[in-house]
Amino acid sequence: MGKDKSLGEIIGKQLIDSLPNHPVIKAMQNPVARQLIQAAQSPYVQLLLKSVANITMGQSPSSETYNTDGNGLPFFQGKADFGNVYPSVRVHCNQPQKTADVNDILISVRAPVGTTNIAN
Prior knowledge:
By secondary structure, the protein is α+β, with helices and mostly antiparallel strands. Helix 1 (about 5-20) packs across helix 3 (about 30-40). It is about 20% helix and about 10% strand. A hairpin with an 8-residue loop joins strand 4 and strand 5.
């Protein structure tokens, strides 16, 4: 196996590195997260992310729908809103186009790409 790592290995490693012995990891109920973490722990497993996850592209609603008054649903704009495990709410969107379910894995596609959090 070459030096290139799969996205699953990178995401799993980020979760493991950012949450050593954290109870969220030990009690993870999300089967996709569990598979990604297991893949990252084994040097012999390489798989396509699409084989263990349903990948849904996020949204880019008009900035006119953003607010800091709490009107609408939380809107995460990437790493700036990501914490160690869960995102922090700074901005809301009153016309969301897509939503995440609790325990979904969020992956930032804004620089730096690949930062992860868990929807709560």
